[in-house]
Amino acid sequence: MLQCLILELEMVFSWLNLLAKFGFSDVTGIDYSPSAIQLSGSIIEKEGLSNIKLKVEDFLNPSTKLSGFHICIDKGTFDAISLNPDNAIEKRKQYVESLSRVLKVKGFFLITSCNWTKEELLDEFSEGFELFEELPTPKFSFGGRSGNSVAALVFQKT
Ligand SMILES: C[S@@+](CC[C@H](N)C(=O)[O-])C[C@H]1O[C@@H](n2cnc3c(N)ncnc32)[C@H](O)[C@@H]1O
Q1: Which region is the signal sequence (predicted)?
Q2: Cα radius of gyration (the chain)
Q3: Residue 135 and residue 91: Cα distance in Å, rounded?
Q4: Whole-structure pTM over 0.85, yes or no?
Q5: Which residues form the domain of 140?
Q6: Tens digits of per-residue pLDDT, 59-116?
Q7: Which of 32, 72, 113 to mutate to test the pocket of ligand 1 (most atoms within 8 A of CB)?
Q8: What is the domain count for the chain?
């Protein structure tokens, strides 16, 4: 059974078709906010998507049950954790440790970030992960230079 952990519940519904196509039947969505889980739960019920499990979990201190995933998807949670005014450097380290704990070896991590560049993300996840693919994102130009407003990368656990 292919297992997927989703750290970004708002997008869970758009990921579902794609995941189903690739044979993922076990999808788990987490958030440390009970109200985010409650809202997602009501949408899941309305849409009849019974194959998604939802859990209130702090990703910086995940329960032992959160393990063995083939894929972990994040859009915005690493960014939110990075912006925490209370010891963000330590929290980012904890995030990488948690990620390593929940993913299988050779498992994939898809991250979309509006806060970090590709180079910065490569540095953040340099221990235990390698870049598998960079996904295309919108480009912009300013003052004769061009760049991306969003970085979207796929890492693989080594
Ligand atoms: C910026 S929002 C992103 C929401 C959505 N993925 C999106 O793209 O609009 C960040 C989410 O991460 C959750 N979050 C922040 N820190 C977390 C943690 N330590 N564990 C689990 N969820 C966390 C917040 O509750 C929030 O729902």
Answers
A1: 1-25
A2: 16
A3: 26
A4: yes
A5: 3-157
A6: 999 999 999 999 999 988 999 999 999 999 999 999 999 999 999 999 999 999 999 9
A7: 32
A8: 1
